[in-house]
Specification:
Blueprint: H1 2-21, E1 29-40, E2 45-55, E3 62-76, E4 79-90, E5 103-118, E6 121-135, E7 140-155, E8 160-171, E9 177-189, E10 194-205, E11 208-219, E12 221-222, H2 223-230
Parallel strand pairs: 1-11, 1-12
Antiparallel strand pairs: 1-2, 2-3, 3-4, 4-5, 5-6, 6-7, 7-8, 8-9, 9-10, 10-11
């Protein structure tokens, strides 16, 4: 009887340990806090910047830090080609442990963006090819993937707008499917160059999914005006 009790305790402890080790935070509502900006350099060139702080929970438990920039060439009024770089630092485990090493990634990408109108709706298609140089605690990886995003924006009035997008991530190595992000936000134009968006995002991976709040601050600048004033 004692042996059976000890054996049962070992199984239960083992199961609890395995559960904790594999806890990815799937059942928790997290948040993505994002600062973006488009900075016009000339009639044909602009620069995009983005910083993200992502949490497993709304106000705590670090998940990811993102810093990204791109140089965009507007070869048509409604189309642009871009080349960019991103840095990533992420914690893959929901459970915090001491002396845990994060995953780091340097990323280079090429991108094509096209914008069009359908009645009051603004449609934007974005296609991105990413080259990812990943440093995990015990290994280094080089991976490539393609991202395709359809974004739809609807103006409620001069200040308020709705925006949603769906983006699919496809690996160029196994496994083919990487993830899918479905997002909907309510936005407010504070001024001509400043917008705030609040919304919800559903992220799907194979076998698991995550719920995230989104708070986005967008600040745009036009450096052409400064150049004209100095001239």
């Amino acid at each position: 009887m004692l042996k059976q009790f000890v054996f049962l305790c070992i199984i239960l402890i083992s199961g609890m340990t395995r559960s904790i080790a594999q806890d990815s935070g799937e059942g928790h509502l997290g948040a993505w806090y994002i600062l973006t900006g488009t900075h016009t350099l000339s009639d044909k060139l602009s620069m995009y910047t983005e910083i993200q702080c992502n949490l497993y929970e709304v106000t705590s438990n670090f998940e990811q830090f993102w810093a990204l920039t791109s140089l965009d060439y507007h070869f048509l009024e409604n189309a642009q080609a871009s080349i960019g770089y991103g840095y990533f630092n992420g914690d893959s485990s929901f459970t915090d442990t001491q002396e845990e090493e994060n995953t780091r990634e340097n990323r280079v990408f090429e991108q094509f963006t096209h914008t069009g109108k359908l009645g009051k709706f603004t449609l934007q298609n974005r296609y991105r090819l990413e080259h990812r140089f990943i440093e995990k605690p015990l290994q280094s990886l080089t991976e490539h993937r393609i991202r395709g995003r359809l974004q739809i924006t609807y103006p409620i009035n001069d200040n308020w707008f709705l925006q949603g997008f769906d983006e699919v991530f496809i690996n160029l190595q196994e496994p083919i499917f990487n993830q899918n992000r479905l997002t909907g936000t309510l936005g407010y134009k504070c001024s001509q160059n400043i917008k705030i968006q609040v919304g919800y995002m559903k992220i799907h991976f194979t076998g698991r999914s995550y719920d995230r709040l989104q708070l986005v601050l967008n600040i745009n600048t036009d450096l052409r005006k400064k150049a004209i004033e100095k001239g």
